[in-house]
Design brief:
This protein is an alpha/beta fold and 835 residues long. The longest helix has 26 residues.
């Protein structure tokens, strides 16, 4: 098939006007943020009357955090703070002086922090810069003491607690991080002693200890606003005013205390050994642990309040069909305000040879906006795999014989028995190869089988009381379509194989690594040349001879991370930037961009959608697709083909520094959310996602050298399952392997993960790239190529030399190199790099 490369132009625009695309992005970001906010507590104070005055206080009032740091940052034209959003909505803010004073304190703290980073790194742009940046997280300064003057007679305070989290370091179970700071506790006490009522906003990317908040009787409402993107302040105003009814639900279990988590003492640095991470909890992660072991939590998985009330009633018994199991529910708004509800379906699996969690999420559906008294019938469809367990001894996914009890509600704890499926004999759904064998013994949690048996008997008795008849279920084996049946893919693959066979060894080698010809001194996810500030690009070695362009990619996952401005000399085709520092903290560490004679200024403003955990908290795949589509449009506008997102690693522990950009403790929610965002992005022709980090990248401290030690069952049921759902239902263009090892093998070198699981078992037809600089930290370049990791990013001369040496001594064959190149070219041929 003849393909024509797109003519490259300077990315972005010379106009300073806000474009219609930016306005549309702002609207989508606002809608997603409002729908992802979770109302945790409300003693009737919300919604607020916009005509009343109130004091807005706390670090995040004027300096609201839109998203995480590192690769999760997005360079935007402007991000709306809570203060700006509430003022624009008409609220009369009495604490403007407090906020102005805090602004001065904040700017001084930022400058002091900047000097600390530069001193630690030995200057800006040094090889040690990113490590210094990641290991010295910015800490919000304390504000001045709150006084009665800040209220000017008002009786309500909105207090914003903020936390920064990011790439490269885990959080700490300490004051000012997971715990509240002394000043935050004192501020709430001061406001309480004044006789005021308090609404607390949690501007945080993960969880934290809420005891001091909830023990304060003056706190009448708590709204988890997460890190809400560029329109966060507007969305907060929408929720607080009642213009939007909160409908977000938690995707994590919020424990009473950090010590309640099963791996609290052993996670990351807590174990005293960050070179290894033992997954002793096995499959009992998040609610699977709390629910099975009957440990009470502050807020359960799936929890979230509304300004109205709903009833959820089964509209039909579960029906077994060829496409899976279907069950319908009638949702009625019985309250006084319009709102949305999420129907969540859980299953308790039968007793058998395998220990199991008490319940697991097997399906969900969000309603449309229901007015007072309005009803909607929603249908939830689930496939057999979601009810299956992995038998590691036999190497297969099985459905054990017995009763599968279905429970529905608007949270885990509120779910009630609504149906029962009966499987008369065990069924093997899928037989697999054994993967990633453990190199050492691991003592895992085994559940509470005796107690679980009692609880299942109670469900059986309840079925009889309610007159619920078990439905005989005959599950169908999973239908996996041959990806080669896709004509576009088939044509691209045929052309790719033909071209790969023609290439010289040197061309094949260069194609295996990112574009290194321009000499990036510090490869920190901003090495792109085609699109200034992009993460990097694939090799352009074949462009002149074969018309195969290098392809540009940009970081995510809360929008596109490029630099906002650069200079271009259009007469000679040269761009001038502030270097990779321009893409970090919106150029905070970079030298000013100096004007040059004959150069034009170009602008690259992008949409900052809410962070990953917040997108998942919408429980709305249609909205997630809409946000993904907006990202895809911006990619196409800028000339980007691959977005290095979404990230869907499991929230194994609340201290993981990168939980803000991942979705959930639950693999089903993670997989469905990643698939929806991918479908949205890839609905724009030629734009593709890169789901990451494959896999078990569940801590940030020593992420490049940590060995994740876990059983095959836990690996498959918890840590691979979300990726499996995303791959099978959305076929992302790319997958990014993770830094860490899994049972002693670097994921970028793991044939078990990249070939056996990803391609043979799941039918994946895209390509795999490494995370940045992986090969400088233990994984070998030639083993990446040999074992299914087609692109080494960002690439360095040592990678080329290592692959050449492996070819020369037979550790790598030309055939293996050709096959790797063909898989890579197959995807390149389908990108927007072509007309």
């Amino acid at each position: 098939m003849e393909r024509v490369m797109k003519k490259r132009t300077f990315s972005g625009t010379k106009s300073t006007e806000i474009s219609s695309r930016e306005r549309r992005g702002q609207e989508i970001a606002r809608k997603a943020a409002a729908e992802g906010m979770v109302l945790l507590k409300n003693d009737g104070i919300l919604p607020l009357d916009k005509n009343q005055s109130l004091a807005l206080l706390g670090a995040g009032a004027g300096k609201t955090i839109k998203g995480g740091t590192g690769s999760g940052d997005v360079c935007v034209r402007h991000s709306v703070s809570v203060y700006e959003g509430m003022e624009a909505a008409g609220f009369r803010i009495t604490s403007a002086d407090w906020i102005a004073d805090y602004e001065q304190r904040y700017q001084k703290a930022r400058e002091d922090w900047k000097q600390l980073i530069l001193q630690s790194a030995g200057g800006a742009g040094t090889p040690d810069f990113f490590n210094a940046y990641a290991s010295h997280a910015f800490v919000f300064p304390e504000g001045r003491e709150i006084t009665e003057e800040d209220f000017q007679g008002s009786s309500v305070a909105v207090y914003v607690i903020s936390r920064i989290a990011g790439e490269g370091a885990d959080r700490k179970n300490a004051a000012g991080d997971y715990e509240m700071s002394d000043r935050e506790i004192q501020d709430l006490k001061t406001i309480s002693d004044m006789g005021k009522e308090i609404v607390v906003l949690l501007n945080i990317g993960g969880l934290m200890d809420l005891k001091p908040v909830l023990e304060n009787s003056a706190v009448k409402a708590v709204l988890y606003i997460s890190q809400p993107g560029m329109a966060g302040g507007e969305a907060v105003a929408d929720i607080l005013s009642g213009a939007v009814n909160p409908s977000g639900k938690l995707t994590d279990s919020w424990a009473y205390s950090y010590s309640d988590y099963p791996n609290a003492d052993s996670f990351s640095f807590n174990s005293g050994d960050i070179t290894r991470e033992e997954y002793k909890e096995g499959i009992y992660v998040g609610y699977r642990y709390f629910d099975t072991y009957e440990i009470p939590v502050q807020y359960c998985f799936g929890y979230g309040l509304s300004y109205t009330q709903f009833t959820i009633e089964p509209a039909s018994a579960p029906m077994s069909e060829e496409s899976g199991i279907t069950m319908s529910f009638q949702v009625t708004n019985t309250g006084k305000r319009a709102g949305k509800e999420v129907v969540q379906l859980y299953a308790a699996l039968p007793e058998g040879g395998l220990s199991k969690e008490y319940r697991r999420l097997v399906g969900f559906k969000k309603t449309g906006l229901l007015k007072e008294g309005e009803q909607e019938t929603v249908e939830i469809q689930l496939d057999a795999k979601q009810l299956a367990s992995f038998d590691a001894e036999r190497g297969c996914w099985i459905l054990e014989a017995g009763n599968y009890y279905l429970m529905a509600g608007n949270s885990l704890e509120s779910s009630v028995l609504c149906g029962c499926l009966k499987l008369q004999e065990e069924q093997i759904l899928e037989t697999t190869e054994h993967i990633c064998p453990m190199q050492e013994e691991l003592q895992e949690l085994t559940g509470k089988e005796e107690r679980r048996a009692q609880r299942l008997q109670q469900l059986s008795d309840l079925c009889r009381e309610k007159g619920i008849q078990p439905v005989i279920w005959k599950p169908e084996p999973e239908n996996t379509a041959d990806p080669q049946e896709d004509p576009v893919y088939r044509a691209a693959m045929a052309d790719a194989k033909e071209l790969a066979e023609k290439l010289t060894e040197e061309e094949l080698i260069y194609l295996s690594v990112g574009e290194i010809s321009r000499g990036h001194d510090v490869a920190l996810g901003a090495a792109g040349i085609m699109v200034p500030g992009a993460a990097g690009e694939s090799s352009g070695i074949l462009e002149e001879k074969y018309g195969v362009p290098g392809v540009a990619m940009a970081d995510g996952p809360a929008g596109i991370r490029v630099i906002t401005t650069y200079l271009a000399d259009e007469t000679i085709g040269t761009v001038y930037t502030q270097g990779f520092l321009a893409a970090i903290e919106q150029g905070f560490f970079a030298a000013p961009l100096e004007k040059k004679e004959g150069c034009e200024i170009y602008y690259q403003y992008c949409t900052a959608i809410p962070v990953g955990i917040m997108m998942a908290q919408t429980w709305n795949p249609e909205l997630q697709m809409e946000a993904g589509h907006q990202v895809g449009l911006e990619m196409d506008e800028l000339g980007l083909s691959w977005w290095l997102a979404p990230g869907l690693n499991i929230h194994r522990n609340p201290l993981c520094g990168r939980n803000f950009e991942y979705f959930s403790e639950d693999p089903y929610v993670s997989g469905v959310t990643a698939a929806a965002i991918t479908k949205g992005v890839q609905s724009v022709p030629g734009a593709g996602t890169t789901i990451k980090h494959f896999c078990c990248n569940n801590q940030e401290d020593n992420r490049m050298g940590s060995n994740s030690i876990l059983s095959e069952r836990a690996l498959r049921e918890i840590y691979l399952r979300g990726f499996e759902i995303a791959v099978k239902t959305s076929q992302p263009m790319a997958v990014m392997s993770s830094y860490n090892l899994v049972n002693g093998v670097h994921t970028a070198n793991s044939r078990d993960l990249l070939m056996t699981v990803l391609r043979r078992e799941w039918g994946y037809k895209g390509f795999v790239m490494t995370d940045w600089t992986t090969t400088t930290n233990g994984s070998l370049a030639h083993l990446c190529v040999k074992n299914g990791n087609e692109l080494i990013m960002p690439g360095c001369p040592e990678d080329l030399a290592e692959i050449r040496a492996a070819l020369a001594d037979g550790r790598l064959t030309r055939k293996e190199l050709e096959e790797s190149a063909a898989r890579m070219l197959t995807v390149i041929f389908q990108t927007n790099a072509y007309e």
